Amino acid sequence: MSAELVFNLTEVADFMRTRLPGFRLCEGARAIGLRRDGVIVAGVIYEGFNGPNIWMHVAAVPGRRWLTREYLLACFRYPFEVCGVQRITGYVDASNTDARRFDEALGFKEEARLKGAAEDGGDVILYVMRREDCRYGTVSPN
């Protein structure tokens, strides 16, 4: 299976919309997707860069072998090394146990809960990966 990184924002955003209902692209967003055998199987969109923080949204096709070391390195090097942020923030509905398990396995830590903010009436969990906690690539403190 051939795999390639995709940096086309429109193409990755179109994929994200198929995986994340209600996904909206914000101005200034950036993207890294993964194409396998001609089809995008994973996407990461970054938005809300403010210097110390950037928001990260992730979507993937289950079971399509998308979580490669190369892709992980690209997805964490961009915010920490290119943008120079100190932290990456993401949010997950508390009811989405698969996404929560995935984020926690990557090393994201729960930072806050927004009570009743999820579409299903449940909580939204804010997760954070700090630069010093990142285990992917050569990320080092500024």
Please report the number of helical segments: 3
Taking pLDDT < 50 over at least 5 consecutive residues as the criterion, the unreliable ranges are none
* Lateral arrangement of strands in the main beta sheet: 1-2-3-4-5-7-6
Mean pLDDT: 92
Topology-level CATH name: Aminopeptidase
Q: What's the β-strand tally?
A: 7
Describe the structure concisely for a colleague:
The chain is an alpha+beta fold and 142 residues long. It has three helices and seven strands, in the order βαβββαβαββ. The chain has a single domain (3-133), classed as Gcn5-related N-acetyltransferase (GNAT) (Aminopeptidase, 3-Layer(aba) Sandwich).
Please describe what this structure looks like.
The chain is α+β, with helices and mostly antiparallel strands and 142 residues long. 25% of the residues lie in helices and 34% in strands. It is built from three helices and seven strands. Strands 1-2-3-4-5-7-6 form a seven-stranded mixed sheet, with helices on both faces. β2 and β3 form a beta hairpin. It starts with a strand and ends in a 12-residue tail after the last strand. The model has no long low-confidence stretch (mean pLDDT 92). GO terms for molecular function: acyltransferase activity, transferring groups other than amino-acyl groups. InterPro entries: Acyl_CoA_acyltransferase, GNAT_dom. This is N-acetyltransferase domain-containing protein.
